[in-house]
Amino acid sequence: MSERLHLRLHAAAGGLCLDARGRLDGVSRGHLARALKAIFDHLPARRLVLGLYRLDAIDRAGVAALIAAREQARRRGIDFVVCGAQDHVRAALAAVGAGDLLLDGADASLLHLPARLRRRRVRTAGCGCPRPTRPQGRPLRCVRPAR
């Protein structure tokens, strides 16, 4: 289990994706708050998807940080979506009454994508944020232009 909170920001078709890995607790909530403030202040985005699919643990302070982030995004007119939580994170959110933070549903992971990308099958890496993925055993094929 990771002791620190690691954040990775990347762009997707429908907005920005911030993936969290590690622990979100009283010690690391400031790290998340600073990162979200920088994103809200400096990056133009209509939607921010926070992916919790690699989060090891969360406590009450971490849940409070997520609630504060949602309110901060709402004040700025940004759609803030939390998705990809594992069962133990879902249980912690439900225990403090913050289960409404999570995006649920069969196609919830693809909601932030434009309709043209939702129609075809997209291989996703958590929260519907498309990243190039391929099986490890298959080599890449090189396509050469015809002469």
From TrEMBL:
Pfam families named among the record's database cross-references: STAS (PF01740)
Coiled coil: none
InterPro entries named in the record: STAS_dom, STAS_dom_sf
Species assigned in the record: Catellatospora coxensis
Name of this protein: STAS domain-containing protein
Location of the STAS domain: 5-97
